[in-house]
Amino acid sequence: MSMFIDADAHVIETEQTWEFMEEEDKRFAPDLLVSERSGLRYWRIDERVVPNTNIGLNTTAESRELADVSARIAHMDELSVDVQVIYPTLFLRPLTARADVERALCRGYNRWLAEIWRQGGGRIRWVVLAPVQSMDRCIEEVRFGKANGACGVFMHGFEGQRLLSDDTFFPIFQEASDLDMPICIHAGGGNLDHYDLFAQDVFSRFKLPAVGAFNNLIYKGIPDMFPELRWCFVETTSQWVPYALNDLQIRTTAELTFRRKHADSKLAGVRGAPRELGEGNLLKDNRIYVACQTTDDLPYVIQHAGEDNIIVGTDYGHADYSNDMEAIAKLAKEGVLAEGVGDKILSDNPRRLYSL
Q: Could you tell me the pLDDT band of residue 138, with boundaries at 50, 70 and 90?
């Protein structure tokens, strides 16, 4: 019998989250602000104010905030979901340029999720937050997560001033690989200037960083450097995958042609050397998984991406257009996919990705 896995569910952070911060870190705990005029709620973190929004009202507060784990599991049963993999909400955006504040927030969140996992009886898994500005503590947190129910390492499409192909992040990748945990790149961004610039453009602010990271990681050959490491791209739909694969093929072919033509010239060393992409399936060859939505043209996506590296999530707890509370049931019942492909997307692929 298949295990149906919600590969992208969420928790809404509350004031209880920060109760799990280390005592010496509590001076960095976010302040909850409420507008007298609108009633909207905000977090103040390191003198920045960010909205406490994206709350799905089609779930109860105790469930989406995981204040009552049993209520969450009861709702999962209604949705025919066996396991949810929990991603954060507040941390989808950059919060601070200070390493000490980032470290404190990540440590508190991770210990909160560890307690939720302990209450979940194996039904609630999660991705650990990595404080990337503090590499030694970052590795500690990844190890803590592995020991306490985390099944992936959360990252943005870029972190601060660095792309994910920067060798600064190689220790994280190696640790995740050693611990059999994937790098989980969720919609969102990790650069404060980028976040502020695209304040009125949700697509560029939240979706494009992950798409760019996909292209950049493959072009730079990073998956080849960590041959056991798995990767996933979550809440960006899967409709962009054929476009990105086509762009990679065109750009790589043009670059390699240029280098061969100018092999005896100084020009050959001016531009970075891309890898040979080969004739295989780029997602499968690079152990990359992409979360689809039920609105995607899945037969078209699978034609280009294959059927072994597509997963699906409900975006449980959120109110944006990625949310589909019945995504699992739809994929299982609708006949738009070849026989057996639905089970792969719902069960086999996420089990392999998250090593469940």
A: very high
